[in-house]
Amino acid sequence: MLILTCPCCGVTAEETEFHGGGEAHLKRFGPGSDDADYESYMFSRKNPRGVHFERWRHVYGCGKWFLAARCTMTLEVFATYPAQTLEPPADVITAIKSKRPEWEGFV
Amino acid sequence: MSHRLPNGGRLIARGTPRNFTFNGKSMSGFAGDTLAAALLANDQILLGRSFKYHRPRGVVASGAEEPNALMELGTGDRFEPNQRATTTELFDGLTAASQNHWPSLDFDVLAVNNLVPQFLTAGFYYKTFLRPRAFWKHVYEPIIRRSAGLGRAPATNARDTDRYEQIYGFCDVLVIGGGIAGLQAALSAAQAGAKVVLWEQTAHWGGRAPVDGVEIDGKPADDWIKSTLQTLESLPNVQIRTRCMGAGVHDHGYVLGYERITDHAPRTDAPRHRLWRMRAGKIITATGAIERPLSFAGNDVPGVMLASAMRDYIVNYAVSPGKVIVVVTNNDDAYRSAITAHEAGIKVAAVIDARSEANGALPGQARALGIRVLTGQGVRKVKGGKRVTGVELCPIDSDGKTQSEALDCDAIAMSGGWSPVVHLWSHCGGKLTWDETGHFFRPDPARPPLGADGAGFVLTCGSAHGDLGAVLAGAHAAGQSAAGLTATDAPATDSLPDEAPLEPVWIMPRAADYDLRMKMWLDFQNDVKVSDVQLAAREGYQSVEHTKRYTTLGMATDQGKLSNINGLAVLSDALGQPIPATGTTTFRPPYTPISIGAIAGEARGSTFQPLRKSPIHDWHDANGADWEPVGQWRRPYTYLRAGEKRHDAVNREVKNARENVALLDASTLGKILVSGPDAGRFLDMLYTNMMSTLKPGKCRYGLMCNENGFLMDDGVVARIDAQSFLVHTTSGGADRIHAWMEDWLQCEWWDWKVHTVNLTEQFAQIAVVGPKARQLLERLGGMDLSRDTLPFMEWAEGRLGGFDARVFRISFSGELSFEIAVPASQGRAFWERLMAEGADMGIMPYGTEALHILRAEKGFIMIGDETDGTVIPQDLNLNWAISKKKDDFLGKRGMEREAMIDPKRWKLVGLETLDGSVLPHAALAVVPGLNANKQARTEGRVTSTYYSATLGRGIAMGLVERGTDRMGEEISFAGQGETRIKARIVDPVFYDKEGAKQNV
User: Fold this and answer.
1) Among B743, B710, B736, which residue's Cα sits nearest to residue B895?
2) Does residue B602 fall inside a structural domain?
3) Structural domain count, chain A
4) What CATH number has the domain bearing residue B368?
């Protein structure tokens, strides 16, 4: 059971206080988008062995969504950060790079 | 025979007898005994029957690793099967019974399995019982179920009367294991300033050290243990607990601890078990090691036990497993058992050492005591059935066809070396390395389980670390390191005689022939033998995980604590590869089985999950409510009158609502306030239809879809003012929809100025329904609810009969209907006022079933009935509620997909049986022929089906292929068996098609 820190209220808590919401930084494709984009938005999800960006909600707390950068293999949490961003902020990228120099970066 | 020795027993109190029964027979032991020790003291060697062959079995071990001595404990509501006698502390009145035998322990008919073992080899299920096919269900399976297995399940009407609890804990350093290594580690961590918790699974501190004769700083280990405990107890930053097992190590330092509070003293007020949910910064596992059995023919005959267990019984409980013992070993450690037994006055016939020579300190000591030592020898086979009567020997490297000597004895101590308990280290990903000296897997400190910060969070010390000699220095270092200090020299030194290395012996004798190998037990509990693992290897099982499942090695309740390494070694040998190349199976929590009660904790009965009650709940309860769960809510299905049947009550309620006036408690309806400058824009995205154009004071029915275009909720939106809307969701859907809104607002349109509040529980909502509804409300006075002032699909706020009220002219029944929201605290009073005012009008409450019938008669859909997560609004002919003006809304893109515009999609229609009967729930419309999966072809299904009291016949709605184009056609629905029910496709609105009744 993971421990996560909510970047909104600052509470560090048990996984049971949160609710996972799948892959982060998805781009929404709405009406007019082509089939491939829509399919990717709806159904294609990354499943990396290593660095992964995820959505979490502090359900039994402040209720806010946030994002986490986490290693799926070792369960190391590199950073949590607010959801109001289109891609991982620079300091998060730096934190990951310092721990995983071989990481290819956010794609 | 096994018996109590006249002197000794460091854990028992001879002045305090304890009476108990075994298989109905009265026996007695002493306080401090385990059940296993007390049974042995009563010469009860035979304790159970084995899983497959029903072979007689006795106790093998003295602790958690015991595979054989499983008992049924207690009776009635306290009955529990599969409890280890070795970890059950004796108390007055304990009742134990042996398992898996019929008709009795001494005479077991199914022991005939033992005579035909060739039919029950590895994978026998898969091979033997294939033909004829029907025999499996009717012949083979019942016989196997009768024959195989462990304890019985508790009686179906038994209810666990004990209490269980869970508790959260937090610490810097959690030390698991209270042997001398664990004690030292805890002390060192505590003295370094860490908040320390120390758990020991047994009732005693110090582990094996006092039994094994360890000296610390020149004094017996017991002295050091006592003083260390005193120090630990005096430290404010230390919490110590016995009878508390570290059950599992999980992510980020989360550990489950299983504390058995009253198992040894039942019927007290305290909870029986407590599950600790501990979050530790660092964990030190000082969980010791487990001795390995030797694989020789007949190693499962009662009286054969682990050498360490034998000296435990002698030293701790003053119980001798026999009058004459033989020790069989491949290492020096087992000589301790020979010496201990000899010193306790038990005759030691010989030590059989597989090694070609034995010249260490301990063998020397044994010889000096006059104990005969035979080297280069092994056990050819054990003599005896229900107990050991002797042993035949042979040269260790021979095929065992001829015996070199035979010895008489009634107990055998065996030792194949030790395996560190690496379970907790491994649970969360800690890796192992093969130790070439000790011939065991030990934790690899370079590859620990990793925490949230990417650093290792588990350390090991003592024999769990692989230190089979002195342990205190390593334990001290572990304690300091866990507390964040650089390790210093240990404050105490433990010393033991030097031991010569063991020589691995995986099969005894090494070249044993098949007849012997099929009598060598690896897994005692699941009856897996050396020959079974070898057979699996011959049949192509190379992966240890596959072999485990094929042979069931290590899959019993003991999880292979004794059998794993021996099994791996036999498999590796059969595959011709070194043991580390074979690897281990996965270690999974819990370390030993924990009670379901502890897992459930207090979450049983009424506290299993929260119960949501409407403000009017108690009135319903007092007035005949027949409750129905709706999510976490309870709603009245119907209100039963004295002597009334449910069906009749429902019909009465339906008719009353159509003809008179009726009340529905609609408080469970979701109510979410959406406000802000962008509220309208936001709702336009959420709903398929346009909400931003709604005028204040008006209501509009809307549909919500997910991004697939599938319908997920519906309800009426009321515009409160320019910037706020009250969104009504389905009952039980409020939390989900509120979360859905927040997700989009926080993660996608975070720059939109919208605020949402879930007000569901702030208001009671009462639907006043029926032709006389307005007349009733006018009696209350205070608001003008006339057709002109408050037309259909509008709402008004005011004081109604003295209550603060919002009145919505909406209808889910097709009748004249007012849904009135009042503050939750006034809900009950308002309801009772309505009931009182309407008494002379024949007012009645109605429940959810009448609600369903009323809406079905009108062809109104219900989320979850007409929808199942794959239904789009167009399937339900709701195209009118899908805006064509909007560029975008959630689900719009999904609806554009090819499959969603397929003309062959199943469409909502009404269904009328030709004979007026009620269609079965969820019945499928079948057509001749088979589909690609060779199942009957279908062209539709029933989504709602009821008896309509209004129309006096069955009505139904269903989804039917091209249904809307097939009005008037007859189709067939599958009934019971091969019966078919004919129904005609009709308009789904069965009642008041024009909507005249609701719009008055």
Assistant:
1) B710
2) no
3) 1
4) 3.50.50.60
Q: B129-138, B425-434, B603-612: lowest mean pLDDT where? A: B129-138
What are phi and psi for residue B735, nearest 5 degrees?
A: -65, -40
Would you state the structure tokens that stand for residue A14, as one six-digit string?
């048990």
Of A1, A31, A33, nearest to B251 by CB-CB distance is: A1
pLDDT digits (tens, 9 = 90+) for B792-850: 999 999 999 999 999 999 999 999 999 999 999 999 999 999 999 999 999 999 999 99
Q: Are residues B509 and B529 in the same domain?
A: no
Residue span of the structural domain in which A87 resides = 20-26+36-107
Do residues B466 and B526 both lie within one domain? no
Instruction: Let me know whether B138 and B174 are in one domain.
Output: no
**pLDDT tens-digit profile of B454-492?**
999 999 999 999 998 899 999 999 999 999 999 888 899
What are the chain B neighbours of A1 within 8 Å (beta carbons)?
250-252, 254
Residues B791 and B661 in one domain: yes
- What residues of chain B lie within 8 A of the CB of A83, using their CB? 746-747, 750
- CATH number, residue B93: 3.10.20.440
Q: What is the pLDDT of residue B126?
A: 63
Contact between chains at B429 and A74 (C-beta distance less than 8 A): yes
Q: To the nearest whole percent, how much of chain B has pLDDT over 70?
A: 96
Across the interface, do B746 and A84 touch by the CB < 8 Å criterion? yes
What distance in Å separates the CA atoms of residue B236 and residue A22, rounded to the nearest whole number? 44
Two tokens at A23? Answer: 């892959």
Within a domain: B601: no
Phi, psi of B323, rounded to the nearest 5 degrees: -90, -35
Strand partners, B993: none
Q: Say which residue the tokens 């707390």 belong to.
A: A61
Q: What is the mean pLDDT of residues A70-86?
A: 96
Based on the domain organization, do B259 and B408 belong to the same domain?
no
Which residues constitute the domain of residue B955? 864-986
Domain with residue B969: its CATH number is 2.40.30.110
**Segment among B339-353, B484-498, B499-513, B929-943 with least mean pLDDT:** B484-498
State yes or no: ipTM above 0.90.
yes
Is residue A3 assigned to a domain?
no
Contact A57 B252 (CB under 8 A): no
Question: 3-state DSSP call for residue B647?
Answer: helix
Bridge partners of B20, per DSSP, are: B27, B94
- Reported as type and span, the H/E element at residue B172 is strand B164-176
User: Is B251 in Cβ contact with A2 (below 8 Å)?
Assistant: yes
- Are B717 and B730 in the same domain? yes
Gap between the Cα atoms of B279 and B290, Å rounded: 27
The reply to whether A83 touches chain B by the CB within 8 Å rule is yes
Strand order across the beta sheet in which B377-383 lies:
B377-383, B390-395, B405-408
Q: Does the beta-carbon distance from B747 to A83 stay under 8 Å? A: yes
Residue B732 shares a structural domain with residue B839: no
- The verdict on residue B599 lying in a domain is no
Give yes or no for a contact between B23 and B73, defined as CB atoms under 8 angstroms apart: no
Does B885 contact A at CB distance below 8 Å? no
Q: Quote the number of domains for chain B.
A: 7
B690 and B754 assigned to the same domain: yes
A105 touches chain B (CB under 8 A): no
